[in-house]
Amino acid sequence: MSRIGKKPIPLPDKTSVRIADGMVTVTGVKGSLSRPVPPGVDLVLDGGTLLVNPKDDKRQTQAFRGLARALLANMVMGVSQGFTRVLEVNGIGYRAELSGRTLSLMLGHSHPLNYVLPEGVTAEVDKKNNITLASIDKELLGQAAANIRSFRPPEPYKGKGVKYAEETIIRKAGKSGAK
After folding, report:
1. At the top level of CATH, which class does the domain 83-164 belong to?
2. C-alpha–C-alpha distance, residues 138 and 173, integer Å
């Protein structure tokens, strides 16, 4: 049984949910998100909460119930509060600049790497080495952050590269020298 799927999703003020034609649309102060309803679940709007109920007791249906509840909770949180992700650029000469919707990264290559931000994701660059990404869609935000990190993942010897702010890089010892 899915413990996550059993929890009701509380709806904050100024947040509305509309279920029609196999699509669920959540609208809040930050914007609106839509997603198809996963198979095998029914959505019930009960006052200020949203419930995810399974159509049967199969194992796959229970898995979809937990998935649907997590996705809907992320949608509700996104349209009411939004999500942010902070990336750090570490290394001598490594820096980031933002011009319009294009993020220009100097990461030790012979040329700058230009990344066009997807629609719905905004960015801020402060101190040339911190990139703050913001969006109402958690999935889109995570994919954009992963794409930026993939240009130069942090290496274990000096920690140079692009890493998440909360990420810890386990360092390796370098050469021990001649005897």
Report:
1. alpha beta
2. 36
Size of the chain, expressed as the number of residues it contains: 179
Return the C-alpha torsion angle 56, 59, 61, 62, nearest 10: 100
The amino acid at residue 175 is K
Q: Domain boundaries in the chain?
A: 3-80, 83-164
Alpha carbons within 13 angstroms on the beta-carbon side of residue 26 total 29
Tell me the pTM. 0.87
Question: 3-80 adopts what CATH topology?
Answer: Outer Surface Protein A; domain 3 (3.90.930)
- Are both 3-80 and 83-164 of the same fold? yes
Q: How would you write the pLDDT of the chain (179 residues) with one tens digit per residue? A: 558 888 999 999 999 999 988 899 999 999 999 999 888 898 988 888 999 998 888 888 888 888 899 999 999 999 999 999 999 999 999 999 999 999 999 999 999 999 999 999 999 999 878 999 999 999 999 999 999 999 999 999 988 999 999 988 888 888 876 55
